[in-house]
Amino acid sequence: MIIWVASFPRSGNTFLRIILWRLYGVRTSTVYDVDGVAARLGPDMIGYEERPSSIEEMRASEKLHFVKTHRQRAGEEDRAICLVRDGRDAITSWAHLTGGPDVGAEIRTMINRRDEAGTGSWGQNVLSWLHPPVPHRVMLRYEELIREPRRSVKKVLATLAPTLRPLPDAHIPTFAELHQVDDGFFRRGQTGTHADELSEELHQLFWARPDNVTAMKMLGYSRDG
What we know:
Helices cover 45% and strands 11% of the residues.
């Protein structure tokens, strides 16, 4: 059986994987052939494991497999943790991570993405996982994850994998600890970072996309919030 660890990039996916590893001893693989995050931070840091078999074989297995993806949902009906973050924060953070010389140009490119497959735009991605709403795809907000990591993840897994039990005396690293490991990857770890990193022109461009507007309204994020 598969449980997707699904999100648009820079929505807290790596921190969630670290929590799954530290709190439950659960290792995660990825839908991709190469896990760049594991290569950068170290496989034992995030609890990475290579996919033991094909997605179809993992899906048919009695064993529980947690698989990271940043792709849009393409009809998959497996269980999923759908991690969401204010799209403006996620896009801005992703643009900074790319390390390009022109962050504004990177943000513009990300806002304008219209790919029907792969990651796609932020709004496309979020809506693909959350619409239509079903009990086996559980939303987890970035705000909740960073504020109460232990409680928020336990609540999600109580629904998706109720047989899993937290490890005694599990230590979940703080953001300060993660920042010391790699301050380029764990950059700010806050909400509302777009407020001082996203220009007004790019902010307007973000809201000009109907899919972004629909997803933001569904999640309760306001234009001025």
